[in-house]
Amino acid sequence: xxxxxxxxxxxxxxxxxxxxxxxxxxxxxxxxxxxxxxxxxxxxxxxxxxxxxxxxxxxxxxxxxxxxxxxxxxxxxxxxxxxxxxxxxxxxxxxxxxxxxxxxxxxxxxxxxxxxxxxxxxxxxxxxxxxxxxxxxxxxxx
Length: 142
Known about the structure:
Helix content: 40-55%
Largest sheet: 5 strands, parallel
Low-confidence stretches: 118-123
CATH architecture: 3-Layer(aba) Sandwich
CATH topology: Rossmann fold
Radius of gyration: 15 Å
């Protein structure tokens, strides 16, 4: 059984399912959730008019990260589990892999977003990239 489990957590229903799976499957493990702020998403939001000023992107992204971490912590507390939360900045797959490598993580758990066709070809899949490049076991929850 792994001692340190990393759950990629973006607040989506699949991420919640992945966190629940990790808590139930690895009850003795230390569990950490990682939320990745992707600067590219913030640029798209600014260009689309979703953010009022480009300079506010990081403040808005960190506020969103706090909200997502609170939900993850609440979910873990409901299951009598302590949880560490971490925010990273960068490309999601790379940030997840780097955190796992730098922090003695034994297992990664994450949701699959189920992208297919052109969307997958153009955008790639974080879950697929992590699975292909990880040096440790990865569990994909769907």
